Amino acid sequence: MTVASAGQTVKVFAVMAGSLVILDLGWLGVLAKPLYDQGLASLRRPDVVVPAAAIFYAFYLGAIYVQAVRRAPSVAAAARGGAWLGLTAYATYELTNWAVLRDWPAWLVPIDVAWGVVLTAAVAAMGRWVAGGAPSASGAP
């Protein structure tokens, strides 16, 4: 990897990270906050465990990059790959919680899965858009 491509990859990750955090915090903390307060009140901590959230976001960004952005030939292809990854990741989380947690609200499952699809598609599309052009043979942006 050349210095320029390393710098480009850092730029792509920075934009993806900013997009992911802004969109997800906007959803969780503002738009859908009443839904999560209603459905998960008895299960929620009073304060977020920030290191756990940061680790999740780091892993998820890596997954979005590898699975949806790196080799996507276009922004639309990256969005489709991101949508698939979001469906897989969020459905796994939601359906597992619904299956094993006594008070997990069933009505929240489709809402949260839909959010995961939209969020991950948007972040992947932003990553491919910032990377520009077609990916190289190595898959680097």
Task: Explain this structure.
- The chain has 141 residues and is mainly alpha-helical.
- It has one domain (3-131).
- Helices cover 76% and strands 0% of the residues.
- The chain has 5 helices and no strands.
- The protein has helices spanning 3-31, 33-40, 50-69, 75-100, 108-131.
- The longest helix has 29 residues, at 3-31.
- The radius of gyration is 16 Å and the shape is elongated.
- The termini are close together.
- The mean pLDDT is 91.
Mind sketching the topology for me?
Blueprint: H1 3-31, H2 33-40, H3 50-69, H4 75-100, H5 108-131
Instruction: Give the overall shape.
Output: elongated
Unreliable runs: none
Overall pLDDT = 91
- C-alpha Rg, in Å? 16 Å
- Biggest sheet character: none
Helix fraction? over 70%
Total beta-strand segments? 0
Q: What distance lies between the first and last C-alpha atoms, to the nearest angstrom?
A: 11 Å
Whole-number total of structural domains = 1
Share in β-strands = under 5%
What is the N-to-C succession of helices and strands? HHHHH
Number of helices: 5
The computed structural class is: mainly alpha
State the main characteristics.
single chain; 141 residues; mainly alpha; 76% helix; 0% strand; elongated
Short description:
The protein has 141 residues and is an all-alpha fold.
